[in-house]
User: Fold this.
Amino acid sequence: MSDDIQLKQPADLEHTDKDLVDKNILGAMVLDTLKDSYPGIKQFFSTLKLLEVTEKEAIFVVSDLMTAEWINNHYMHILEKVFFEESEEHIGTKKVVVKAQEESEIKETTIKKSKSKKRAGVVPVKIGSLSGKQNFSTFVKGASNTLAAIAAERVGEKPGQTYNPLFVYGRTGLGKTHLLNAVGNTVLDHSENARICSLSAEHFTNKVISAIRSGKQNELRNAFRFDCDVLLIDDIQFLAGKEGTQQEFFHTFNELYDNNKQIVLTSDKPPHQLSGIQERLIGRFEWGFAVEVLPPDLEHRVAILQTKAKNLGVILDEDILFVIAESSGGSVRELEGFFNNVVGQSTMLGVPINKNLVIEVSSRLMNNSAPDQITVELIQSEVASFYGTTVQDICSKKRTRGVVRPRQVAIYLSRMFTNNSLLDIGRKFGGRDHSTVLHSVATIEDLLAKNPSQENPIRILQSKMRKISGGKLVD
Assistant:
């Protein structure tokens, strides 16, 4: 009996080692394929590891709970596709699962709870100031901004180590400045002695001009280049055409970057669309991670209103919140302004907040709406005409190459230029579900990342949509 045991043990150990090697190899193959085939979303899979493969499931882990939830909710179909291709198994033979590393999750939560401090009003920093009220706990996440929020949170927790520079772009009023302040406040939560420079591009320009006039350029350079741990610049597009200021910023950027100091910039456009900015600066803006903040969809706007109402101590039925969300503008700033008007009028007149009051406020505030309203139907028509197909084909079940790509582009533009929810967009494209909409958006984002040229047909259509909307939405 003992001989049998001695003979079986080496074989069992060899089999276990082989399984471990195979699992590691398979995990590496899946990760490499995800990075190569889907560069636009590769940051979500940067910490992905294959933990275990059984007869029934394949278990992956990532570094944090938020990333795990985002992959499960938005990119699971991509992970499943790559896993089954690389494992050479039939689709559906195993359940693919993504979990967070529990230890990392607990550690991060503990750090945030132990170091989080409440601030109110304006927080003075090394240069400029921060809004103490704008932090990650007051930033309401949704499909339109979660990616930007995840990146900003990681930067705040580990400045200079991930996503440097972080470049957040999108139309005005969507929360870019909120994220900028949240990064600064998080850095201060972790280190009260951190030297933070937080100001707008216009303020930076004024400082450069003032230093030149007073002959104190060296003092200015020392302050930004050697006495700064985190540089936060809002609305970087306002450096356009200011050659002298761009020269100073170029050298400041290089000095901070070379010394692993964190840089966070916001803009109304992605780096490659900025005009009047030196090419060498644009190139540096693209060194790190550029992420877009989109207008919130209807469900996201309702979530924002729920948070706003709770903070004000106002109790409203959900159906009223939906009416307010549908009646307000597309940006977070417009939404909050509209809500404040509704609450203010209710308080002054002593009347309850109901549908009639919302309609009355809407009619008073929305007289100067945009001259042209982009709809899903308009986008479908424009895309069909551009690609030489029909709206009927785009909304059909056809899977031919000449129909699939126009359909994906139309879905992407609908997500970008309208406030329709994922479900609404899916319904208007032949009853497709929200996962199909997300897959189409991810596919087009990958194509845009691979080919940023303005001659890209998708960008040509984007420009046309912007002209139709009077420039209200920015890609």
Notes: The mean pLDDT is 80. The first strand starts at residue 49 and ends at 53. The two ends are 73 Å apart (CA to CA). The longest helix spans residues 2-37.
